[in-house]
Specification:
The protein is mainly α. Helices cover 22% and strands 0% of the residues.
Length: 166
């Protein structure tokens, strides 16, 4: 085997063990989703974490801290989320249907196009939250409009306006 063949073989082996730049770039921005389905996470601290497309369905998330998380497209379906803290969180396109959100804090949260059908929104704190194009039923909107106020600091959208309050 001459030097040229040896160099080509070494290069081929090196390329086999190096990640493709496109794949590495994709995982930098879109890592594989995290799954916490059916987990007991009451009181845990996820504050400030990158949780895009994470799955928390049917989980116990009472008193859990999700403040300032980036959780676009996350799934919280069927979870118990009493008194959870989502202050300043980005939950764009997230699924929060059939959850118990009693006393949860969504102050300054971005909830654009989030799904809330069947969710218990009793006593939610929503000052400065942006619900633009969120899917809520009429009773939920009426309940949230009773305390809605403020403007979202990230999107500049008025909370009452985003809910369609009268």
């Amino acid at each position: 085997m001459n030097l040229r063949h040896l160099a080509a073989a070494a290069l081929a082996i090196l390329l086999l063990f190096m990640p493709l730049p496109a794949l590495a770039q994709a995982y930098k921005y879109y890592p594989p989703p995290l799954s916490y389905s059916n987990a007991q996470l009451s009181g845990k601290d996820f504050s400030g974490q990158f949780l895009r497309t994470a799955e928390f369905s049917n989980a116990d998330l009472q008193f859990t801290n999700f403040s300032n998380v980036q959780a676009e497209g996350a799934i919280f379906s069927l979870s118990m989320m009493k008194e959870a803290n989502f202050h300043g969180a980005d939950l764009t396109n997230s699924m929060l249907e059939w959850t118990n959100l009693t006393n949860a804090d969504f102050t300054d949260a971005v909830l654009v196009e989030a799904l809330f059908l069947g969710a218990n929104v009793k006593k939610m704190k929503i000052t400065g939250a942006d619900f633009t194009d969120a899917i809520l039923d009429g009773a939920q909107v009426k309940q949230l409009c009773e305390t809605a106020s403020g403007v979202n600091p990230k999107t500049g959208v008025d909370t009452r306006e985003s809910l369609g309050c009268r």
